[in-house]
Amino acid sequence: MSDYAVLVPAYQAAAHLGEVLLRLQALPRPMHVLVVDDGSRDATAEVARQFGAEVLSFAANRGKGHALLAGFQQLARFDGVVTLDADGQHPPECVPDFVAAAEAGADLVLGTRERSRDMPPHRRFANAFSSGWCSAIAGQRISDSQCGYRLYSRAVLDRTPVAASRYEVETEMAVRAARLGFRIQEVTIPTVYGDETSHLSLTRDVPRIVGMMLRLTFEPRPRS
Ligand SMILES: Nc1nc2c(ncn2[C@@H]2O[C@H](COP(=O)(O)OP(=O)(O)OP(=O)(O)O)[C@@H](O)[C@H]2O)c(=O)[nH]1
Ligand SMILES: [Mg+2]
Question: Which CATH number characterizes residue 46's domain?
Fold first, then answer.
């Protein structure tokens, strides 16, 4: 049986992180959990420690992409890594579905939200547009290109080149892994929008995501 770890990128996440970590501990097969606290000014790191997670803390904020890459390095001894958000939007109870998909042979397991009315209308549109675009350029179906709830196998982590430093990281990793021929499987997860605070900025992050999709569209494809 493979040994997987959980990686939680966290920025200003103290409000919801404790509950996420408690629910992870309650899973039938608890896993090692690493929280990457990225220059938070709230109690994110303290909450993470209090709930038994390993914590990597940065003095200044550098972005979700940077945090994930640092976390992947830290977790290099594991056979794969499940990533999930700290704000409660990714129910920890779905982790076994990701592990089951990986154990059945998937290299990359993508959490996929239904674009139901639980998702704000502008997000529904942006998500459908970007996921359609990514599927077209990736050569495999990617139904939710921006969802951060995933399982990356060791092979994907070791062989997928990543340059993204902020929210464009999910787009880049999914498209690049698909193009390298890794087997992708999708797992449906609930769409959760509650009282959490989004840090995604329309002026800073949306252009970065679109820029990444353009770059992936026009750059030379890897030779198979
Ligand atoms: N380490 C780190 N984590 C971050 C950073 N920005 C966001 N995160 C974490 O990444 C996850 C997703 O961030 P959100 O801002 O909720 O973005 P999102 O879920 O894609 O967008 P919404 O659907 O609007 O919530 C959360 O766990 C955040 O705490 C960052 O700069 N560094
Ligand atoms: Mg969120």
Answer: 3.90.550.10
